[in-house]
């Protein structure tokens, strides 16, 4: 059996990338969060980007946020051996600033983030579809 529906698959990819139809305002795909959640130790990145192999742990997801000593120890020179980021999205900062520079955070597993967000725990479905988000 082939599971293929052009419209459904295309729509799901757009939705996952944050550019499809979505009831939430300003939804974006957060590459840093996904990297930390699903490649916590950075093994996948290390496999495909040899220039970053010297960076230990999850720091590999944000090499531009490392201090110069950590970059030097890893043999990485931003702008020379690895490019500077073209864009740094504001929503990435909360994932970068949660850990000290040059060190890896507590490993995450496949079940999700290390600290689930509790601030929306008691909100009903109406919160997510209302226009007022100050509640």
Automatic annotation (TrEMBL):
Top-level taxon of origin: Eukaryota
Family designation: Belongs to the DNA photolyase class-1 family.
Keywords, comma-separated and alphabetical: FAD, Flavoprotein
SUPFAM superfamilies: Cryptochrome/photolyase FAD-binding domain
Protein residues bound to FAD: 3-5
Gene3D superfamilies (UniProt xref): DNA Cyclobutane Dipyrimidine Photolyase, subunit A, domain 3
Stated name of the protein: CRYD protein
Molecular functions (GO terms): damaged DNA binding; deoxyribodipyrimidine photo-lyase activity; FAD binding
GO BP, one annotated term: photoreactive repair
Cofactor note: Binds 1 FAD per subunit.
Biased composition, class Basic and acidic residues, residue ranges: 119-135
Residues of the Cryptochrome/DNA photolyase FAD-binding domain: 2-97
Sequence segments annotated as region (Disordered): 89-135
Cofactor: FAD
Presence of the UniProt keyword Transport in the record: no
């Amino acid at each position: 059996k082939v599971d293929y529906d052009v419209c459904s698959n295309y729509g799901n990819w757009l939705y996952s990338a944050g550019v499809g139809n979505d009831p939430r305002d300003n939804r974006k795909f957060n590459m840093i969060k996904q990297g930390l959640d699903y490649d916590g130790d950075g093994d996948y990145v290390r496999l495909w980007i040899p220039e970053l192999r010297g960076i230990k742990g999850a720091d590999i997801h944000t090499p531009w946020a490392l201090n110069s000593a950590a970059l030097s120890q890893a043999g990485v020179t931003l702008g020379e051996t690895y490019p500077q980021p073209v864009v740094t999205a504001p929503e990435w900062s909360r994932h970068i600033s949660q850990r000290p520079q040059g060190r890896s955070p507590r490993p995450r597993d496949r079940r999700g983030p290390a600290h689930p967000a509790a601030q929306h725990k008691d909100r009903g479905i109406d919160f997510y579809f209302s226009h007022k988000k100050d509640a």
